[in-house]
Design brief:
globular; 530 residues; Fun_TF; mainly alpha; two-stranded antiparallel sheet
Length: 530
């Protein structure tokens, strides 16, 4: 089904986590409540070694930087060194597993990944109450880790949001409220909602300002995403999309519809690029986008994020590693292409239906069917040939993590191949072609249940669920989702089960193609599968 790689194969050599990773929750709580803490390292009162020598009357000799160890015998490193050129050639692998050859030719391997910010060295606000401190601890140590597919020291949910929260009260309130809602699992808790409302009020106040700096714009975009995430995590099906719509209008007004311009307006940093990647993620996983098309053209996302949408393969060469998408981001880009291609074909079908002349109708229908088949074959080829986002794989620390991430990528390949048939050809799920892929898909899913990458399964579970026709498959899928929902705190998985049950009611024998987003609309939902 798929081949496992070792860490050495990917040249993941001698990678070490950030120093902050070793801190415990108790250590951080002490740090957070220490009024004298500045986050700066402590310096000896006696000065450096050379200064102490000078105080003792010994001549202080200045050494030019880089020459200090010139005449000193170096200790031999115990780390295993792997030359990329010495890795054996791979052969016979599926397109997904040509990673080693891809890395050898296209990717410059870093010796070690440096996190953007050491969260635990930041100067925190000292006047937080006990409740605020507990919620912030919970966000840093649990919420961000639960949602992220990638290691914590590379997680923008920490390295971007936490520094901003130090001086931006709206973001601080948003994170505290999000953490409280995540912990409670419901919006009925008064305390978290108070912080969410404070964040919304401060956001509205900032938006009324006549002049917004680059920092103001960056912080507003971050705040919108925090508020969206807080709503999605408790299973909201309306408010999150209202907030997302406000964010879309804000971006549209700022960049005049050009996403590449937006990066400059946000400072053109790695954090700004991740925010754009995050917008793509929420856009393609919104039920509204599946019905009407994505808010921005996929080509604009690709241009801004350095993704090459080739005719036979999509190449994601972006340096930004998205904690919510991991190595799967190329598949989400392809999902956006499927959505927009279907939207284009629907418009062609509508134009076809109003043609009265029989000869003109026949000609236009031939053009429509030809376009449909060409688009289908092109997208199918891209899905089969596209590789994972390799920089994200380079961050992983052991073979088990690597296997889980590659399995998640295979899950999305299978999900997109099934979904492509639903969206383009309106294939009924009962056909053997769909059922064969479903069997492989569910086997892969069971492999990564209860692992660190399970948070990325929402869309795939929806596709697998509506594809189940056999009573045994449906029973097992319901049990799988029940078990998952009971363990995983994000509530939109429970909404997925509700929609899947509705699809089964409407399509008892699997002879029809039923769209999950049509069911969502009929229930008055704006569902996010993020």
């Amino acid at each position: 089904m798929f081949n496992a790689f070792t860490v050495n194969d990917l040249a993941l050599v001698d990678q070490k986590p950030a120093n902050s990773a070793g801190k415990t929750l108790a250590d951080f709580q002490t740090f957070l409540n220490d009024a004298n803490s500045t986050g700066r390292p402590i310096r000896s009162r006696s000065g450096c070694g050379e200064c102490r020598r000078r105080k003792l009357g010994i001549e202080c000799v200045w050494r030019q930087p880089g020459t200090e160890r010139k005449n000193t015998k170096r200790r031999k490193s115990q780390a295993i060194k792997v030359r990329v050129s010495s890795i054996e050639k791979t052969s016979g692998f599926s397109p997904t597993h040509t990673l080693i050859d891809t890395l050898r030719t296209n990717v410059e391997l870093p010796a070690k990944y440096e996190p953007q910010v050491n969260v635990f060295s930041l100067p925190f606000i000292c006047h937080l109450s006990d409740t605020e401190s507990r919620y912030l601890d919970y966000y840093i140590n649990y919420v961000s880790a639960t949602l992220s597919l990638l290691p914590q020291e590379t997680n923008y949910l920490l390295s971007l949001y936490i520094p901003l929260a130090v001086h931006n009260k709206a973001i601080l309130n948003g994170l505290i409220g999000w953490s409280g809602l995540f912990l409670a699992g419901t919006k009925s808790e008064e305390t978290p909602m108070k912080y969410i409302q404070n964040a919304v009020d401060l956001c509205d106040k900032t938006l009324k300002s006549d002049t917004l700096t680059i920092s103001d714009k960056l912080e507003l975009v971050c705040l919108f995403f925090i508020l969206c995430a807080a709503e999605i995590c408790v299973g909201d099906v309306k408010n999150w999309y209202d907030i997302f719509g406000r964010l879309y209008k804000f971006i549209l007004n700022e960049c005049n519809g050009n996403l590449k311009t937006l990066l400059g307006l946000l400072g053109d940093t790695e954090g700004a690029k991740w925010l754009l990647s995050n917008f793509l993620y929420h856009d393609v996983l919104s039920s509204s986008s599946h019905e009407k098309g994505t808010l921005f053209p996929i080509d604009q996302y690709c241009e801004a994020l350095n993704i090459i949408p080739g005719t036979t393969q999509l190449m994601d060469s972006s340096s930004v590693c998205d904690p919510l998408q991991g190595c799967v981001r190329p598949m989400f880009v392809l999902l956006g292409q499927i959505i927009n291609t279907r939207n284009k074909l629907d418009k062609m079908q509508e134009d076809l239906n109003i043609i009265k002349d029989r000869d003109s109708y026949r000609q236009k229908r031939f053009e429509f069917l030809t376009t449909l088949e060409q688009d289908f074959e092109e997208l199918e080829t891209r899905i089969k040939n596209t590789n994972p986002h390799t920089p994200s794989l380079l961050l992983l620390k052991d073979d088990k993590e690597l296997e889980d991430h590659l399995t998640l990528f295979e899950i999305y390949k299978l999900s997109l191949r099934i979904y492509l048939r639903y969206m383009m050809r309106k294939t009924p799920p009962a056909l053997p072609e769909i059922q064969l892929m479903l069997q492989e898909l569910t086997l892969c899913m069971d492999v990564i249940m209860d692992t660190n990458v399970q948070s990325g399964l929402c869309f795939a579970l929806m596709v697998a669920g509506i594809s189940c026709v056999d009573p045994v498959d449906r029973e097992q899928m319901e049990a799988r989702l029940r078990s998952f929902s009971s363990k995983f705190p994000v509530k939109n998985f429970e909404l997925v089960l509700i929609l899947i049950r509705k699809a089964w009611e409407l399509n008892k024998d699997g002879s029809q193609c039923v769209n999950w987003f049509d069911i969502s609309e009929s229930m008055g939902w704006y569902l996010s599968l993020a």
